[in-house]
Amino acid sequence: MAKRTIVAMPGDGIGKAVLDETIRVLEAAGFEADYVEGDIGWEFWKKEGNPLPDRTIKLIEKHKVGLFGAITSKPKDEAFEELAPELKEKNLVYSSPIVGLRQHFGLDICARPCRTYKGNPLNFIRRGVGNEIEEPMVDVVIFRQNTEGLYGGVEWSNPPAQVYEAFMTHPKFAKNFGKTPKEEVSISTRIFTKKATERILRAAFEHAKKYGYKSVTLCEKPNVIRETSGMMYKMALAMQKNDFPEIELWNTNIDAQMMWLTKNPEDYGVIVAGNMFGDIVSDGFAGLIGGLGFACSAQINPDSGIGVFEPTHGSAPKYADYDVSIVNPIAMIESACMMLDFIEENEIAKKIRKAVAEVIEEGKIRTYDMMKMRGKADVIYNGAASTQQMADAIIEKF
Ligand code: NAI
Ligand code: MG
Fold this sequence. Notes:
Elements: E1 4-11, H1 15-28, E2 33-37, H2 42-48, H3 54-63, E3 65-70, H4 76-82, H5 97-104, E4 109-115, E5 126-127, E6 133-134, E7 139-145, E8 155-157, H6 161-168, H7 171-177, E9 186-188, H8 194-211, E10 215-220, H9 228-243, E11 248-253, H10 254-263, E12 270-273, H11 275-288, E13 296-301, E14 306-311, H12 330-342, H13 346-362, H14 387-396
Helix pairs in contact: 1-12, 1-14, 8-9, 10-11, 12-13, 13-14
This protein binds 1,4-dihydronicotinamide adenine dinucleotide and magnesium ion (MG).
């Protein structure tokens, strides 16, 4: 079989350090591929007025699989300030390139697994009935709708007259907001479509079935957000009944779920949610298994076979310019394992996951976050492993 080409998109800040180390791990594990670099992020916004250049889109179209580090996003006004002077006249508006990528390629299925690693000093613990310390095993996969909802980008401040008038036809808008001057109103919409909702629900149920999870939990708020959450709930009920009777459907509200998160995280299996609630609940679960240094994700479009794999953390700009990178590469490495599963290189994925688990359990090599240190350049002198040393330790296990 021809060698695969992977589009490597380091992005900004710590994105490059974690991606470089991940590629080294992939190579050492025996994954044979070529890598082409895809430009994305703040640098390209500043220089070209576009953080997601067309050439990057073309690369992904061609090669289908991308590994992505992280990008930096800044608020509207700062984004404008940092544009190259010759671009300032052009009325450009910054928008997040990773959100752009998801929408352009319809990467509407986002999967974020959160599994406890044995021996991770950051594991969540709690007190049992007899006052003993319990360390629940978390094994959850969050399926987050990735292209719609509150992150769909349909929003206005001081909305155009036509939009405002349309909203005024809604009795609740007229009653509760109608007296506020239009200039003082900002609106962000939450749009769900049946097609995308069906796809994320089905992906969640299919995952539960394939990997033997006994339940799928819909985490929304249908009692209050009646139209969007309500539609999703109704569709989930029908899908469970018709197509997945062997899997239980649980229904939690996002606020209550965040409370139950620490009370009984071991009870949950697959969780499915819209875009924003999926984002929130996945960060919540990530906190139980070690935080951002461990939280990985896959974003895929099953129809086109395009997938982009990324850690859920951002570019952590304050650590970007250290001479020796201190951040934990495991979230990026685990994201690469999800990529390997996607392209059916399951054996290599297994090998890397096993090595990561061994290094964590052994506990000799730990990045600063695993030592509960504050992230500063001197953590290395205080015994924390660098990004590179963590990757080396994983490679040594092969
Ligand atoms: P962040 O995830 O970049 O960093 C938050 C904190 O988490 C860091 O200060 C650090 O203490 C810790 N952290 C993150 N990654 C780590 C790692 N691999 N190992 C150890 N510790 C780690 O989030 P923040 O500070 O809110 O945002 C920074 C920039 O990243 C912003 O411009 C934001 O817009 C962007 N961002 C980008 C994302 C993406 O590319 N998908 C996602 C989240 C934020
Ligand atoms: Mg997030």
